[in-house]
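Reproducibility note. Readers wishing to regenerate the assembly model reported in the main text can use the exact inputs given here. Chain order matters: entities are listed in the order in which they were concatenated for prediction.
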Amino acid sequence: MTAEMEALERRMDSLQAEVRRAMVAGDRDLARALRAELNECRSQWEASLTELEGQAPEPAGSHGAQGPILPVREQVHQVLTLLGAPAAPKLVIAIHDALFAGLLPGARLTSLRRDEERSFRSAPYARPYYICAALTAELLSPARGLLAVSTWPMDRRIVGPLSPRVDFLTAAIRVAERFRDLYRGNSGVSPESRRLLWRFAANIPRAAQSASTINPDEIIVAARAELAVHERADSEQRAESALRARAQLDDAEQLFGTGLRLSRLTSADG
Amino acid sequence: MNAVESRLEHIRGRVAPKSHNARTIAALTSNPGCARRAIMDAAGVDKQRLAAYSGFPAPFGQSQFAITRGNAFEAQVKANGCAELLRLLREHLGLSIPEVSYDDLNDVGGNTGLVVRHVRTRSLLARAVNSGSDAGTLFDHPLLRLQVAGRPVFLEPDLIAFQLGGRFHVVEIKSFAVIDGQADGDKVAAAVIQSAVYVHALRELLAGHGMAEDAVADEVVLVCPENFSNAPTAALLDVRKQLTVLRRQLARLASIESLLDVLPADLTFDLGMDDDGVPSRSPAELRDAIFTVDARYAPECLASCEMCFLCRHEAQGRTETLGREVRDELGAIDSIAAVLGLADGTLAPADDQAEAAGLLRAAARLRRECTGEAA
Ligand code: SF4
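Running the prediction on these inputs yields the following structure tokens for the assembly.
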């Protein structure tokens, strides 16, 4: 990242000099084009800077008012444990914001899986759990943009073609249950959690009429009904791939997946 | 590398080729007779950049903001196992409940190489066709391939849905809004022609597996945000007409070889980048290089080709700037000054201009009579 930025900086310097030269020479056309290029460079540089910002450690006390702050990996673990299924960072954040205390800094999630893998590889099993990858059923490669927990059984971390829908319905049920408990315990239901629940309900047949009449029990019934349609085929696929993963992959690969091996691709393609 | 490829490579200069997409192919069909555009597109020239360095920057180009917004909307619709998309396909198009299977073709085991993704796309789609119901419904960013001007072009539709009425449907996700059932006509038209490109490419791919054309629906699904919200809505659009135009024009695209034959062997649009990526070639020199390739300017270029300001400048004073119809009417007369001269009789027509000159004089007389000008 920084090497890339340094190259950009050098390029910006030269471009700047060229713009000036072109201006002095009275070549407006060239100057205009060079300036466009310079602007392009500058916005790339800004984008890299924003990314760097996301990777930097949080300043101490930045969440002072929010009470004790758990490390990011623990916050993510909390959410994934509630969901019981692999989830994308966006969903993890939405659920955390709606149902848990404190703030989950989104930018830190981009590098979390990589950090966890590094930690695992340097001292395997030193931690009680790792935030790891979900594996694609056919190729056993890390599924794009999904987070999972290392202590889950292998088949739950596998995603086959039906799994995204199954996991969505599973998450809907878990979130609705949590919502119901909060509601019963009278610990107050935030508008955010209501909105979150509606986002699930709206996309499940017969789960709710409108955002205002939303009822967790109805959502659970509706999600279970659709789940029953997909569940069997999905779990068979997952179990089969889990067997293969355990037989073929080493420990680190089982958690973080494996790159594309051509032999596997061709055999999978038949 | 064969001779044609190495020539095209030399013309492009020392940069990676700019790849085609459905948008550029759709635009390509809007001026199929232009050799300049055909050469640049076949060589993978970055026209936007070339136009800027030749002193005539393009008046358009997708803004970074629009791209970001488009990507965010697409990600939203596809989030959580395509939850929103499934609802739309179920509600509007009757997709059945068991049809939820999702295959991600954005990469293959972490490998994003085009060829690998294309091979994988082919095998998954073929499997879906051959084994019927339970071998895939949603294919996310499949990678198709199409021959354009004798060169293969990779194309990436947003999504292909299978088993919608037993056929493949191209799904195009766009971030322009549909308000009270109405959307910007130009944007819809652009989406339709782009989708037609995908339908065509998908049919070509399936034909290789012995499938008839009608395995791919000639209706595409357009998904857009509705009424100032981010909530998506879907509509079916008929692309039959666009398909016909596209097919005819792809076939008509002159083979690049014959266009290359008439160009100087040392022609190049290289910008002369130094090590820091700063171009050193002068705009005038670039313009001269560009002018060696014949253009066929028409006002439509202004909406579809990055070179348009340069070509318009070049065509100044010529009949084509008045539009294709006028140019065709005037046949052998190509400068506007000549048209005016023939009309007021100050210029004597050549043999092949006699007929047009007669009409022009008649038109000039009528105009004078209408406006009451003295003869
Ligand atoms: S703008 Fe120029 S290069 Fe582009 S299509 Fe029109 S005439 Fe051809």
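We highlight two features of this model. The mean pLDDT of chain A is 84. Residues B 31, 34, 36-37, 295-297, 301, 305, 307-308, 311 surround iron/sulfur cluster (CB under 6 Å).
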